[in-house]
């Protein structure tokens, strides 16, 4: 066996193996080679080449290049990077004179966390979503820990964090509790910062917009539109949570919206502009709490009132905005140009007839009363005349 | 002539009678008479509105929550789920007891505000009057459905508020609590309305 070890072939193999394994041995030391070093931007960063203070010359490489950012090199081979910026980040390796890798480190630069700008919203009474934006861009990976504190810490609930989206959710919050505070702690390699925000749930309640808005014509009524919708899918479908809906509509091209409020779908509008396409939007708010927020508007839904097939007239070019000084003017002009006798007009005629009849009745009554008063007056005059004549007769009679 | 007069009067009378159906049909159908539960929910909403006004006009939103009042009705344990499963009698009794407790607290606030000449006094007096009216109405409803009256908890009230600032803070705390109570109570009345009709 010693003979075998001393053979030139075996020695060559051992030398080859030891040479080839040298860098591998250096890489498997985790602190020295595969570590990541975090440091604040704009600071001076010191990278030691080795732990011992051996004063032998070393060479540093940045991302496999001998060109280094602004730096100074100490006598023991320590690299001091001065006033580092983002371009200074990367892999730093130090080698001895023989090209042997002594140390390698990944440098990541950034800032410690600053305060967060937190905003919360309740799409219904059973869920809170809080999202945040960093006031300081840290450039470093962070972790978040979010807790809801109820009534000055008497109770707490974990807000489940989505790190990528930077938001957290709380299910079944104590909506009717008067004091709620959310704390979000952001932690990165350089430090941590906690931001607190008070959450008045009743003011943060904001439903999602209603769904499936439909605008349909009502046959026989050229000025009516039927508007229907469905509740937001996230809203609690229960009578304890009524919603108030704000509906706005206008003829396409007009600047001015008409609006109506309703607690339920559908709604019929009576003052649509005959013959024109209308834009309709709806938003919703909790009916009970008028300090809560309105949802966003739904996308514009188009609909056109009913019109007789023979009289279909669709202008190719939708009218200019200036055409509509106000909606009232529009309605007046529509009434003037519409000669057809619609069912609505028939109803109006009926009303006019009724009013005329009523006036006739009133007139008859008044005339009858005048007549009665006149007849009575005449009768009284007649009686007085008779009395006078009888008195005169009596006077003329000899006693 | 008398005959003529009589006949004209009777003609007029019959004419008016003949048009009676026209007049009656012209008048709108009278609205449904509000039930006590309707009144309860309406009054609660009104109280909520008054509270919001008071908070807007006279209280201030401080970042520090003083928590002076330990005996206010517990609201943190009430969830939206609970609202969907309310029982008639216990809920009416609890609402009445809670309302009475708030009444005591607001009467105390009224007394303290008088000492400090708080500008919200007139509205506070109106609010207490509305609260009393609501609790009386609620009590009447409880009697009707035979809901028991709960034993009144003794409110623990701060003994002395030396500064106007303390009064403002206290009024903010009380009003904030009460606003949320009204929100919850209104929803509870909405839920209980059909249940009352079923009992009666």
Automatic annotation (TrEMBL), chain A:
Gene3D superfamilies associated with the record: Immunoglobulins (2.60.40.10)
Source domain of life: Eukaryota
The protein, known as: Uncharacterized protein
Transmembrane segments: 349-375
Domain Fibronectin type-III: 209-305
PROSITE patterns for the chain: FN3, IG_LIKE
Homology family: Belongs to the type I cytokine receptor family. Type 3 subfamily.
Residues spanning the signal sequence: 1-26
Keywords: Immunoglobulin domain, Membrane, Signal, Transmembrane, Transmembrane helix
Coiled coil ranges: none
Domain Ig-like: residue ranges: 23-94
From TrEMBL, chain B:
A Pfam family assignment: IL11
GO BP: positive regulation of cell population proliferation; positive regulation of MAPK cascade
GO cellular component: cytoplasm
Signal peptide residue numbers: 1-26
Keywords: Signal
MF term (GO), any: growth factor activity
InterPro entries (UniProt xref): 4_helix_cytokine-like_core, IL-11, IL-11_fish, IL-11A_fish
SUPFAM superfamilies referenced in this protein's UniProt entry, alphabetically: 4-helical cytokines (SSF47266)
Domain of life: Eukaryota
UniProt KW DNA-binding keyword: no
Name assigned to this protein: Interleukin 11a
């Amino acid at each position: 066996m010693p003979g075998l070890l001393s053979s030139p072939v075996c020695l060559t193999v051992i030398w080859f193996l030891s040479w080839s394994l040298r860098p591998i041995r250096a890489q498997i030391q985790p602190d020295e080679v595969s570590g990541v070093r975090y440091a604040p931007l704009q600071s001076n960063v010191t990278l030691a080449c080795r732990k011992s203070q051996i004063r032998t010359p070393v060479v540093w490489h940045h991302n496999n290049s001998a060109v280094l950012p602004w730096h100074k090199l100490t006598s023991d081979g320590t690299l001091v990077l001065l006033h580092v910026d983002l371009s200074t980040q990367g892999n730093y390796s130090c080698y001895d004179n023989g090209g042997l890798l002594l140390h390698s480190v990944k440098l990541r630069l950034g800032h410690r966390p600053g305060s967060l700008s937190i905003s919360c919203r309740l799409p219904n009474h059973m869920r809170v979503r809080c999202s945040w934006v960093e006031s300081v861009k840290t450039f470093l990976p962070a972790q978040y820990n979010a807790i809801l504190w109820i009534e000055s810490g008497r109770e707490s609930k974990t807000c489940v964090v989505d790190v990528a989206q930077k938001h957290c959710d709380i299910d079944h919050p104590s909506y009717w509790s008067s004091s709620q505070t959310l704390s979000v702690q952001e932690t990165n390699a350089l430090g941590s910062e906690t931001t607190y925000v008070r959450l008045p749930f009743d003011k943060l309640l904001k439903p999602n917009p209603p769904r499936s808005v439909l605008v349909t014509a009502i046959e026989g009524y050229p000025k009516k539109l039927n508007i229907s919708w469905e509740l937001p899918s996230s809203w609690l479908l229960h009578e304890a949570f009524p919603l108030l809906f704000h509906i706005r509509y206008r003829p396409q091209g007009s600047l001015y919206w008409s609006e109506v409020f309703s607690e339920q779908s559908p709604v019929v509008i009576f003052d649509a502009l005959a013959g024109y396409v209308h834009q309709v939007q709806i938003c919703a708010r909790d009916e009970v709490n008028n300090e809560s927020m309105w949802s966003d508007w739904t996308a514009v839904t188009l609909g056109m009132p009913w019109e007789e097939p023979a009289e279909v007239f669709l202008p190719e070019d939708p009218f200019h905005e200036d055409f509509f000084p106000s909606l009232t003017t529009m309605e007046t002009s529509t009434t003037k140009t519409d000669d057809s006798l619609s069912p609505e007009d028939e109803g109006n005629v009926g009303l006019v007839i009724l009013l005329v009849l009523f006036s006739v009745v009133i007139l008859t009554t008044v005339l009858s009363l005048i007549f009665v008063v006149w007849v009575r007056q005449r009768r009284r005059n007649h009686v007085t005349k008779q009395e006078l004549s009888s008195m005169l007769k009596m006077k003329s009679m000899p006693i | 002539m008398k005959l003529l007069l009589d006949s004209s009067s009777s003609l007029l009378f019959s004419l008016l009678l003949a048009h009676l159906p026209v007049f009656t049909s012209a008048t709108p159908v009278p609205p449904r008479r509000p039930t006590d539960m309707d009144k309860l929910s309406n009054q609660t909403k009104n109280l909520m509105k008054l509270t919001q006004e008071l908070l807007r006009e006279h209280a201030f939103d401080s970042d520090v929550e003083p928590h002076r009042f330990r005996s206010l009705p517990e609201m943190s344990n009430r969830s939206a789920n609970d609202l969907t499963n309310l029982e008639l009698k216990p809920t009416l009794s609890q609402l009445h007891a809670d309302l009475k407790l708030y009444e005591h607290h607001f009467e105390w606030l009224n007394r303290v505000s008088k000492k400090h000449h708080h500008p919200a006094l007139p509205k506070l007096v109106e609010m207490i009057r509305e609260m009393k009216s609501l609790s009386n109405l609620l009590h009447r409803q409880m009697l009707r459905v035979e809901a028991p009256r709960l034993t009144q908890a003794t409110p623990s009230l701060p003994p002395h508020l030396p500064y106007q600032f303390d009064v403002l803070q206290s009024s903010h705390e009380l009003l904030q609590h009460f606003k949320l109570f009204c929100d919850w109570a209104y929803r509870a009345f909405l839920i209980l309305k059909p249940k009352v009709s079923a009992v009666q």
